[in-house]
Amino acid sequence: MSIAIYPGTFDPITYGHIDIALRASKIFSHVIAVVASNPSKKPLFSIEERLDMVRVCLKGTANISVISYEGLIVDCLKEKNASVIIRGLRALTDVESEFQMAYTNRKLYNAAETVFLMPSARYTYLNSTMVKQIAYLGGDITHFVPEYVRLKLIDKTAVPKKTSADPENGK
Ligand code: ADP
User: Fold this and answer.
1) I want to staple 153 with a disulfide (CB 3.0 to 4.6 A). Which of 90, 115, 135, 165 is the partner?
2) How many angstroms from the chain centroid is the CA of residue 72?
3) Catalytic residue among 25, 50, 87, 128
4) CA of residue 18 to ligand 1 center, whole Å
5) Which long-range CB contacts under 8 A does 125-132 form with residues at least 24 apart?
6) Strands 84-88, 113-117: parallel, antiparallel or unpaired by DSSP?
7) pLDDT tens sequence for the chain (171 residues)
8) From the CB of 43, is ligand 1 less than 6 Å away?
9) 152 lines ligand 1 (CB under 6 A)
10) How far is the C-alpha of 158 from the C-alpha of 44, rounded, in Å?
11) Distance between CA atoms of residues 157 and 85, nearest Å
12) What is the best residue among 35, 37, 87, 122 to mutate for testing ligand 1's pocket, by most ligand atoms within 8 Å of CB?
């Protein structure tokens, strides 16, 4: 059985992430999407919220499971008896950092093989940061994330409206 893990911050999961996970699920017998805590990236959503959104968005595919993980990706690989790490490659700009990560993981665990998959062309320029920025500015993110995620993003990025009880109101 060929198991692959698909690690990411998923802050939040987008159609680009989903595209890669589904492609991987057609190649490997089991794919484990791993929501990494990644505190250095200061995620907008908590790890529980990200895990929940990834679960909801990938629940339709039987050979994909979803977990969260706080440690090194190579330790996750060993725990799951896997050797393949899936990563998505969008434009050339991803290559430098992705190669660095792939070689580092191989250095840490010689059996670790990173497999890069390309998303559908329409998701090439899609990333979570851009989606969050659009949401903060009140733009339409329908084409970038599933409805469940869109509503969570609207909740999270909503700027509270001033009420008449607000002491700052009318100043
Ligand atoms: P990380 O912080 O580990 O880069 P991300 O959630 O940003 O986590 O991305 C996880 C993986 O998904 C990465 O390999 C990234 O390149 C890939 N990915 C993100 N968005 C897209 C997209 N639109 N198309 C293809 N791959 C993507």
Assistant:
1) 135
2) 16
3) 128
4) 10
5) 125/90, 125/91, 126/14, 126/15, 126/16, 126/90, 127/14, 127/16, 127/90, 128/9, 128/10, 128/11, 128/12, 128/13, 128/14, 131/12, 131/14, 132/11, 132/12, 132/44, 132/157
6) parallel
7) 699 999 999 999 999 999 999 999 999 999 999 999 988 889 999 999 999 999 999 999 999 999 999 999 999 999 999 999 999 999 888 899 999 999 999 999 999 999 999 999 999 999 999 999 999 999 999 999 999 999 999 999 986 655 555 555 544
8) no
9) no
10) 13
11) 32
12) 87
What are 55's two structure tokens? 């679960």
**Cα dihedral 117, 125, 133, 73 in deg (nearest 10):** 20
Give the pLDDT confidence score for residue 92 in this predicted structure.
Answer: 82
Query: What's the pLDDT score for residue 162?
Result: 56
Say which residue the tokens 């990236």 belong to.
41
